[in-house]
Amino acid sequence: MLELHDAPLAPLTTFRLGGPADRLVTATSDAEVIDAVREADDSGTPLLVIGGGSNLVIGDKGFAGTALVVATKGFALDGTRLELAAGEVWSDAVARTVEAGLAGIECLAGIPGSAGATPIQNVGAYGQEVSSTISEVVAYDRHARETVTVPSAECAFSYRHSRFKADPERYVVLRVRFDLEDAEGLSAPIKYAETARALGVEPGDRVPLAAARETVLKLRSGKGMVLDPEDHDTWSAGSFFTNPILTDEEFAAFHARVREHLGDGAEPPAYPAGEGHTKTSAAWLIDKAGFTKGYGTGPARISTKHTLALTNRGAATTEDLLDLAREVVAGVRDTFGITLVNEPVTVGVTL
């Protein structure tokens, strides 16, 4: 294990923000991960687990404890079954499954971060979520002090949520296993309307795997959602807010606010989200509340390519970013009566 003290954390995050950690440990095997976690737990030292750093907002004061970088490697295919070590780069793993002719995660191409983070957040985009292909998650249980294998049915997956996210101090993901599909070189059925339009097909159609992946990468790049060190629009955590899911009563009240603000004919985005619930678009809310692409004059601004991404223009601090996030939350709440919820994990700060 590599160990550093008073180590900067900003370079380990896609925001490039945050102060130093008292101690930074990099683990390259499951055994090293477990040893580092046990050492921290035995000594009562606060522990921050870092994968790809694409979903972290770390305070300017840094982290008073041990930051553990999970840098394990492992990509194993057995037929249609895939096992990834937690430290595998997710976008690279997706590319390799497409090359192998296996469907199920091709529309999750270009998402930054590590494989171990995908079940925690139930990562999803363009009509796919990892919950639909994960078969089980191998994790270290800090309460039981043992390695456990959690079947998909017991992961409590929901929209951008799981049992691992619900109890963040308990589990450290070590490996993720997937059941993919051999569709003779074709993708899973295309579910997302934007993807279908870009591909020139109907929702439900299948297309060549490489075409699905390449199309998603182009769509993501156009929104600043594929990492590029030269493009400050990608110095972000991707979507900063989750799409609100409202009860029927909440949606009716929201609908009334929309028409009051935008006129009687205005219709907000609405998508089925289970019985008695409707999902609407956080990006639409932000834009219609007056926070358009490129909004802001300081070092933290809304992306020029996508209203859901808050970005570091190169000289921002975490507090600059949070000031912008709070302004957006307050503006959307005042206009539409909906309180947006941040998607990234905050460390040492609150929104």
UniProtKB/TrEMBL annotation:
Q: Report if keyword Cell wall biogenesis/degradation is assigned.
A: yes
State the reactions this protein catalyses: UDP-N-acetyl-alpha-D-muramate + NADP(+) = UDP-N-acetyl-3-O-(1-carboxyvinyl)-alpha-D-glucosamine + NADPH + H(+)
Ranges where the FAD-binding PCMH-type domain occurs: 17-183
Identify the main location.
Answer: cytoplasm
**Which cofactors, if any, are listed as required?**
FAD
From the Swiss-Prot or TrEMBL record, state where the protein is found.
Cytoplasm
Q: Name one GO molecular function term.
A: UDP-N-acetylmuramate dehydrogenase activity
Q: Does the keyword Transmembrane helix apply?
A: no
Q: Which residues form the active site?
A: R160, S239, E343
Function according to Swiss-Prot or TrEMBL: Cell wall formation.
The text of the family note is: Belongs to the MurB family.
Q: Which HAMAP family match?
A: MurB (MF_00037)
Name the chain's protein: UDP-N-acetylenolpyruvoylglucosamine reductase
| Organism from which the protein derives | Streptomyces pseudovenezuelae
Organism lineage reads as: Bacteria, Bacillati, Actinomycetota, Actinomycetes, Kitasatosporales
